[in-house]
Amino acid sequence: MSETIVVLTEESLNDGDAKNLLTLVGDEPTTLLVLIPNDRHKNVLAEFFHHLSLLEFSGAFRDLSQGQPSAEESRVSAEAALESSLRVAESHGIPARGFIATGNAVESLVEAVAEHGARQAVVITRPHAVADTLHTDWANQAQDRLGVPVLHLYSGSGFIGGS
Fold first, then answer.
1. Contact at 8 Å (CB) between 1 and 47?
2. Concatenated DSSP letters for 126-156?
3. Among 89, 98, 97, 120, which residue's Cα sits nearest to residue 14?
4. How far apart are CA 75 and CA 56, in angstroms?
5. In b/e form, how buried is each residue of 107-136, taking b as 16+ CB within 10 angstroms?
């Protein structure tokens, strides 16, 4: 029987993410259940401070002036991210299926873990200076609610988020 690992990712899986997931999967028959949040807009103020903390002044003000995407733009973006993620996983030999998570992303992760009897969950995000430092990121929220390990990876890298 194939094990299910639930993966909540903030953006499309990329080759680096797939390689990290392959390491986690090992030789066990595993299927990924990929969750892409429908509402992936950024908290403008949090992103502003994140850029400032990294001394990315132009990025801070550019994001501040762009505003938020429309609901339709968010939906189309999430669907494209899911399709891309499934293609990347399959190209690395990892069977995958997924869905767009509506509402609270962490709640969707918790529900998917329970529904599929998953024994592992992975959260893949960009670094978020404030949320990661204060342990309010998705991985920490999920770990507080689940009885399974939650691995926090930073997208495209081998870095593991702190818990």
1. no
2. ---HHHHHTT-SHHHHHHHH-SS-EEEEETT
3. 89
4. 28
5. ebbbebbeeeebebbbbbbeebeebbeeee
Q: Are 116 and 33 in contact (CB under 8 A)?
A: yes
CA 41 to chain centre: 13
Q: Is the pTM of this model over 0.90?
A: no
Alpha-carbon span 58 to 88, nearest angstrom: 32
* Cα first-last separation, the chain: 31
Q: Of 134, 20, 47, give the one whose Cα is nearest residue 7.
A: 20
Chain segment 40-94, per-residue pLDDT in tens: 555 555 566 555 666 666 766 666 556 666 777 778 888 999 999 999 999 999 9
CA-nearest of 124, 157, 121, 134 to 4 is 121
